[in-house]
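Team,

Forwarding the record for the chain on the shared tracking sheet. I've put the sequence and predicted structure together so nobody has to dig through attachments.
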Amino acid sequence: MSASGGGQMLEREEESENEVRREDQENINKFGRLNARLYEVRGERDAIKKKLERIDDASTELMMGSGDKVMLMLGDAFFESSEDDATEFCEAEVEKYQAVVDKLEEEESEILEEQEKLKKILYTRFGKSINLEDS
C-alpha cells in the first residue's frame, strides 16, 4: 500500500509489534545524534579540503614565481614576504590542515562503526518498522 507523500506503508505482517523500551529509545536517540555529528564532520572536512586546495594553488603560483617579494594574507591583512617564507608558511598550513582532515576522517569512521552496531541492534528488535537509512 502507498502512503501519501510517496512513502510506503508496511503490510500488517511486516510491522513489528515490539513496544519501544527506554533502552530502545536511547539507542534511537544516540543514532540520531551520531547522524547529526556525521554530517557536521563531513561538512568540516569538505571545507578544510577546499582550503587545502587553495593553499596548494598558492604554492604552485609561488613555485612559478620569479623570486620577488610576494604579499601573504594572514587573516584580513596582507604582509610582504619572500617567496621562500611564503612557501614555508604554505607547507606549514598544509601540514596543520591535513592533520585536522585526518582526525575528522578518523572520527567519521568511528561514527559509522558505532552506527552499524546500533543498526544491528535496532533492526533486530524492530525489523522493517524502523528506518535508519539516509533518504
